[in-house]
């Protein structure tokens, strides 16, 4: 099997020239002006780099097809064509490198992936270049569990949660490039991706150390615990205040007092006109008792100076006619 490289082309070109004329010398500068190559029946198994052959005209392939018999093909370059769907690769069980960057797509189109081809490539593909293809999500390649190098630069990826989910399941990924995507403007997007992937060693051209990875994972755990604690506190606040049949403003005041003074609570009684008595927790300043904080007596709220009623004060909710008796201030 033959690997098509620049050196191989030069060698074949020299042989062709010698067959035509034994006296004519081959000039390598002539090779750089080539515009077309015909390589049929050369038993080519993979294609190398042609950076120096800048005058070669690219194809205008719009559909990947007729590759079913290339079962031993290892490298496939399809960049700079008009391919919209990565398909027709179901039989390429040994393909390890796929370059399909910078497709010339119409407005509103983006490169997408046929699940059947992705299923086959999931067992073999190690290098994938899909840069410059207006891609908005990497969900289509989540099954590529053997993938080690992914170049997805200059696309339209902008959802950090979707990206994190897709990258976290690429368990063999070591080299990731995402420059030129809107998602790179997301706050701490690199830290977020590193914390959710255990294998990435190079990210946007920079090496990731084990110390950095451990720090990101600890940060992720602490952030998760903080959000969990905050949600539990909010739920408890709502449970306590919703159980009281009080106007919204008073509920808010009671809730704020409970959570700002967790140690300054005592049971008090709220009675209604229908002879229904329930016990709730109120802060000590509601009864006029002094609050001791750090060895000092905390001042009572300013509304404690309001003229005190001789007996208990009553309130009437807006939605019913129940009167609520509160202890004297």
Can you walk through the features of this model?
The chain has 329 residues and is of the alpha/beta class. Among the domains are: 31-208, Leucine-rich repeat, LRR (right-handed beta-alpha superhelix) (Alpha-Beta Horseshoe), CATH 3.80.10.10; 211-246. Helices cover 27% and strands 17% of the residues. The strands form six sheets. Strands 3-5-7-8-9-10-11 form a seven-stranded mixed sheet, with no helix packed on it. β12 (265-271) and β13 (277-283) form a beta hairpin. Mean pLDDT is 75; it is low at 261-274 and 309-319.
Secondary structure topology:
Layout: E1 2-4, H1 6-20, H2 28-31, E2 44-47, E3 75-77, E4 85-86, E5 97-99, E6 112-113, H3 115-121, E7 127-129, E8 149-151, H4 160-168, E9 175-177, H5 189-195, E10 202-203, E11 206-207, H6 210-242, H7 248-260, E12 265-271, E13 277-283, E14 291-293, E15 296-298, E16 313-315, E17 324-326
Helix pairs in contact: 5-6, 6-7
Oligomeric composition of the shown chains: single chain
H/E series: EHHEEEEEHEEHEHEEHHEEEEEE
Largest beta-sheet characterization: 7 strands, mixed
- What value does the average pLDDT take? 75
Q: Please report the number of helical segments.
A: 7
Which second-level CATH architecture of one domain applies? Alpha-Beta Horseshoe
Which runs of at least 5 residues are low in confidence (pLDDT < 50)? 261-274, 309-319
Q: Mind telling me the CATH superfamily name of one domain?
A: Ribonuclease Inhibitor
CATH fold node name of one domain: Leucine-rich repeat, LRR (right-handed beta-alpha superhelix)
Strand content: 15-25%
* Radius of gyration, in angstroms, nearest whole number: 36 Å
Query: Which geometry do the CA atoms define?
Result: elongated
Strand arrangement, major sheet: 3-5-7-8-9-10-11
Query: Strand pairing plus helix content: what structural class?
Result: alpha/beta
What portion of residues is helical? 25-40%
InterPro entries: Leu-rich_rpt (IPR001611), Leu-rich_rpt_4 (IPR025875), LRR_dom_sf (IPR032675), SDS22/Internalin_LRR (IPR050836)
Protein name: Protein phosphatase 1 regulatory subunit 42
Keywords: Leucine-rich repeat, Repeat
Organism: Eufriesea mexicana
């Amino acid at each position: 099997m033959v690997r098509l490289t620049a050196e191989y082309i030069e060698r074949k070109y020299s042989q062709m020239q010698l067959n035509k004329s034994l006296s004519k010398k081959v000039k390598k500068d002539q090779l750089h002006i080539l515009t077309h190559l015909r390589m049929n029946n050369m038993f080519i198994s993979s294609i190398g780099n042609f950076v120096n052959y800048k005058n070669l005209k690219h194809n205008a392939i719009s559909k990947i097809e007729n590759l079913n018999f290339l079962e031993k093909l290892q490298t496939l370059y399809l960049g700079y064509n008009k391919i919209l769907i990565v398909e027709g690769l179901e039989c390429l069980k040994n393909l390890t490198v796929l370059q399909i960057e910078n497709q010339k797509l119409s407005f509103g189109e983006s490169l997408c992936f046929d699940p059947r081809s992705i299923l086959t490539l999931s067992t073999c593909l190690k290098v994938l270049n899909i840069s410059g293809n207006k891609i908005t999500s990497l969900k289509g390649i989540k099954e590529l569990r053997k993938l080690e190098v992914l170049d997805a630069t200059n696309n339209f990826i902008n959802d950090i949660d979707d990206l994190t989910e897709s990258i976290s399941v690429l368990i063999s990924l070591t080299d990731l490039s995402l420059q030129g995507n809107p998602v790179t403007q997301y706050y701490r997007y690199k830290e977020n991706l590193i914390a959710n992937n255990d294998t990435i060693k190079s990210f946007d051209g920079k090496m990731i150390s084990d110390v950095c990875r451990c720090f990101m994972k600890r940060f992720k755990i602490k952030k998760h615990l903080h959000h969990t604690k905050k949600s539990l506190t909010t739920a408890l606040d709502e449970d306590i205040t919703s159980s009281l049949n009080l106007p919204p403003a008073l509920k808010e005041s009671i809730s704020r007092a409970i959570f700002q003074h967790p140690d300054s609570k005592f049971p008090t009684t709220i009675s209604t006109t229908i002879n229904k008595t329930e016990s709730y927790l109120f802060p000590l300043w509601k009864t006029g008792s002094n609050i001791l904080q750090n060895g000092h007596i905390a001042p009572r709220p300013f509304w404690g100076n309001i003229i005190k009623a001789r007996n208990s004060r009553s309130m009437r909710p807006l939605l019913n006619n129940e009167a609520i008796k509160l202890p004297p201030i």
